[in-house]
């Protein structure tokens, strides 16, 4: 039987530990909106949608945030330099259990003047502060793909990725983009090798760069993910601050969402206006606190660390 007091006390201690860590490093805790007009453009994410209704009947399409990233970057553009937030985020079409819950807690933090390598260092220091002292190795995505899938991402094309998928018996769809094919290979051949390992995986292909700046050669995004015993824990970047490039990426993602039949949200023009005011380099990281709770305390499922998991809330109807 679940020990509710134990879970609540563990989470309280983790949250207090997080706050103590960042306050000791002169970060400012901030609050960001959960209900927004542009909840996210990533093609692989599905926001929860709703409407904001005014007394006069006027309705505004809105969504629950998949991440506080846009709002946090706006604060950086307004002159804040070291900020963090602990907030609820929401992602639809997720499993109800395992390592997924449609509503979960996210820690997100940013620092002006440092890049993604410094962010990896700080992430490891945070885990150590919270009691995780195991070694964490670091690998470039290119090196892991070369070893596990036999593909050199330096010169891989969509055709290369598609051919490799077919050779390995991995299902492909005619509508697959280069990003889709990369992700299929990643899920089938690369990610399963992370079981039992702790590692930072960094320098993702340009088409996986998301909101990150690019490496000097322009081939890769300055992005990393952290895996603890095979569980993905966070996603960090050296942040892209070029508004023209960011608009281009938003438009590419909007086209991909449209192709997939997913809702396309308005581009956040305020974010684009403020991006150039953010000094380079700047890093940011988004870390799932529920999964952090799991790995710190040895739980195997996300529902084990939640007082009200979705698989209890929505499976009795």
UniProtKB/TrEMBL annotation:
The Aminoacyl-transfer RNA synthetases class-II family profile domain, residue ranges: 1-309
A biological process term (GO) from this entry: lysyl-tRNA aminoacylation
Keywords of this entry: ATP-binding, Ligase, Nucleotide-binding
Recorded GO MF terms: ATP binding; lysine-tRNA ligase activity; tRNA binding
Protein name: EF-P lysine aminoacylase GenX
Species: Candidatus Uhrbacteria bacterium CG10_big_fil_rev_8_21_14_0_10_48_16
The keyword Nucleotide-binding is assigned to this record: yes
Assigned GO CC terms: cytosol
Protein's UniProt keywords contain Ligase: yes
């Amino acid at each position: 039987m679940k020990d509710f007091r134990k879970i609540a006390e563990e989470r309280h201690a983790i949250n207090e530990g997080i706050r103590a860590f960042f306050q000791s490093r002169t970060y400012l805790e901030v609050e960001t909106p959960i209900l927004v007009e542009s909840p996210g453009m990533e093609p692989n994410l599905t926001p929860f949608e709703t409407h904001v209704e005014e007394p006069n009947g006027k309705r505004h399409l809105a969504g629950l945030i998949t991440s506080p990233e846009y709002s946090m970057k706006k604060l950086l553009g307004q002159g804040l330099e070291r900020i963090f937030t602990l907030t609820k985020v929401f992602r639809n079409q997720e499993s109800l259990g395992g390592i997924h819950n449609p509503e979960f807690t996210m820690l997100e933090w940013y620092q002006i003047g440092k890049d993604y390598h410094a962010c990896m260092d700080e992430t490891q220091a945070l885990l150590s502060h919270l009691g995780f002292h195991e070694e964490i190795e670091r690998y470039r995505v290119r090196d892991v793909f070369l070893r596990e899938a036999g593909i050199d991402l330096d010169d891989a094309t969509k055709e290369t990725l598609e051919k490799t998928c077919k050779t390995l018996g991995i299902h492909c769809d005619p509508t697959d983009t280069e990003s889709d094919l990369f992700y299929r290979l990643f899920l089938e051949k690369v990610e399963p090798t992370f079981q039992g390992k702790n590692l930072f995986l960094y320098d993702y292909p340009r088409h996986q760069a998301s909101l990150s700046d690019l490496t000097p050669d322009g081939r890769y995004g300055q992005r990393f993910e952290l895996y603890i015993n095979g569980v993905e824990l966070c996603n960090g970047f050296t942040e892209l601050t070029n508004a023209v490039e960011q608009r281009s990426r938003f438009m590419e993602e909007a086209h991909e969402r449209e192709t997939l039949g997913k809702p396309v949200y308005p581009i956040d023009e305020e974010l684009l206006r403020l991006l150039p005011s953010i000094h380079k380099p700047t890093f940011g990281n988004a870390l799932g606190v529920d999964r952090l709770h799991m790995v710190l305390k040895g739980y195997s499922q996300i529902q084990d660390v939640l007082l009200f998991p979705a698989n209890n809330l929505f499976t009795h109807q």
